[in-house]
Amino acid sequence: MLTIKNLHAGIEEKDILKGINLQVNPGEVHAIMGPNGSGKSTLSSVIAGKEEYEVTEGDIVFEGENINEFAPEERAHNGIFLSFQYPVEIPGVTVTNFIKTAINETRKARGLEEMPANEMLKLIREKSELLEIDRKFLSRSLNEGFSGGEKKRNEIFQMAMLEPKLAILDETDSGLDIDALRIVSNGVNKLRSKDNAVVVITHYQRLLEYIVPDFVHVLLDGKIVKSGGKELALELEEKGYDWLKQELSV
Ligand SMILES: Nc1ncnc2c1ncn2[C@@H]1O[C@H](COP(=O)(O)OP(=O)(O)OP(=O)(O)O)[C@@H](O)[C@H]1O
Ligand SMILES: [Mg+2]
After folding, report:
1. Which CATH number belongs to the domain containing residue 108 in this structure?
2. What's the total number of domains in the chain?
3. From the Swiss-Prot or TrEMBL record, what is one GO molecular function term (predicted)?
């Protein structure tokens, strides 16, 4: 589904990603861990096509197509979803209207008609129930005055509605209380299928108890320095990144 080959990217004169290789297949869940500033958010931004970052070398191939030059909207329309670490506020646009627009734009890009209102309503009801989202919440202005947990819940709602092929969740556990963590993980787990893949960026082993990854990768200074199964997250939690740095003598 997603193949990243020798990816180098940065901003102006600063190299941030220094040769990333990653293969994500349908049905898999990958976790990316790593210390602050190691390049995790940059990697997700580059996959999503944020224009402030420049790819200087390497390829991002999604569903057999090199997407290096694709605009963010094109990538979204092709089924890549990125949850933002710092979501934007859009006063006057409700949670529901935002998602309706997003769904219909994707349909338009695929040459489909707008989703009929009753179908949309049904989908909204179904997904908000799945994620235990209150009706009142759906008519609030997007991200305006949202608590950290509410922002995250909204992102997962967007993901559930859009049903992306590849979902990248950056720091989904930051600011989530125990209940919200469970609801979000539940949402992700319910979205998991043999055709979809999820990349979760997290600092905490705890999240990975709920969303059990098939692979864990450690990003250090712009490179994936170690990959393993879910037990790698436990080992990191126990020993910290210094252990890994020493082991790799970097
Ligand atoms: N837009 C930007 N402008 C300047 N520097 C940037 C920008 N984006 C990223 N960087 C730098 O690139 C490095 C990697 O940042 P990034 O946000 O990818 O780290 P991270 O692994 O997500 O960290 P955290 O765990 O704190 O979220 C940092 O040194 C950061 O300051
Ligand atoms: Mg980050």
Report:
1. 3.40.50.300
2. 1
3. ATP hydrolysis activity
